[in-house]
Specification:
Mean pLDDT: 88
Largest sheet: 9 strands, mixed
CATH class: Alpha Beta
Number of helices: 8
Order of helices and strands: HHEHEEHEEHEHEEHEEEH
Radius of gyration: 17 Å
Shape: globular
Strand content: 15-25%
Distance between the termini: 22 Å
Oligomer: single chain
CATH architecture: 3-Layer(aba) Sandwich
Number of domains: 1
Low-confidence stretches: 1-12
CATH topology: Aminopeptidase
CATH superfamily: Gcn5-related N-acetyltransferase (GNAT)
Length: 264
């Protein structure tokens, strides 16, 4: 799920990419690993800046090094995907564990949401975010490998919940975000019993919506494996996105996906 965060922003993963043959060649040899040092983290931050700021137009101050970084990075584990031939980082997630939350004092999501009853289960919650994949590698293989490693990480450390912000661009005036919310609400995939509330709500009631809208690919993937959206979306002005607080309970993953993502 997603730090967009500045935004737990994951909308850069939602675009369809051409050239399946070239895609398969590029993704044939991908190494998934955890960052081991500051240089690894900087490579991930450089990719994040390239995608969020240069590609998506997010308001990020990257400095001379053009890095997307904030105070949460030093407390996170950083999962990265490399092209094994070039060794370049072509995908990343950052992961904030319950132990790290105790040190820094909050989840990134708390910058955008009042977490309500999520606060009662924080010791079982891992927050994922800043997910992005280089535009040449978005056919699905890389994100699936990253998910599989996230699943192993969760299982190994006995964490139950994965949360993050699934982001949808509102460059269209918010129509898609409002449409997705209405679609998920009608399908009973929006839950309110955790009392999660956006600090800066997107005014979805005032927006037009398209009942035939397509849910962005990454959010659709989260929902397919059993995730739910908690309450209404927040507006992230830095990334100009609607952020949906998304939560996955690993004990509720359908068996066919559980075997794939949580097998050793």
């Amino acid at each position: 799920m997603s730090s967009s965060l500045q935004s737990n922003n994951i909308s850069a993963l939602n675009q369809q990419q051409p050239s399946k043959k070239n895609q398969e060649q590029k993704e044939a040899l991908i190494n998934i690993e955890w960052a081991k040092n500051e240089n690894d983290i900087k490579e991930a931050q450089k990719l994040r800046y390239k995608i969020f700021a240069e590609e998506m137009g997010a308001n990020i101050s990257g400095g001379k090094e053009k890095l997307d970084r904030d105070i949460f990075d030093e407390h996170c584990e950083h999962l990265i995907a490399r092209n094994s031939k070039t060794n370049k980082v072509i995908g990343t997630y950052r992961v904030l564990t319950p132990e790290a939350v105790k040190i820094i004092g909050s989840l990134y999501s708390e910058m955008e949401f009042e977490l309500g009853l999520i606060n009662d289960i924080k010791d079982q919650v891992v927050e994922v975010g800043r997910a992005c994949i280089h535009k040449k590698y978005r056919s699905g293989n890389v994100i699936m490998q990253l998910w599989a490693e996230l699943g192993r990480f969760m299982k190994k450390n006995n964490y139950r919940y994965m949360v993050g912000c699934s982001s949808i661009s509102i460059k269209d005036g918010g129509i898609l975000a409002a449409s997705v919310y209405k679609k998920l609400y009608d399908a009973e995939r929006i839950v309110n019993h955790f009392h999660v509330k956006p600090k800066l709500p997107l005014s979805i009631e005032q927006l037009a919506f398209n009942k035939d809208c397509n849910t962005p690919a990454l959010l659709k993937g989260y929902l397919r494996v059993g995730a739910v959206v908690c309450g209404k979306p927040a507006w992230d002005p830095d990334f100009n996105t609607a952020d949906f607080f998304t939560m996955l309970d690993l004990t509720k993953i359908p068996r066919r996906y559980f075997n794939h993502f949580l097998s050793n």
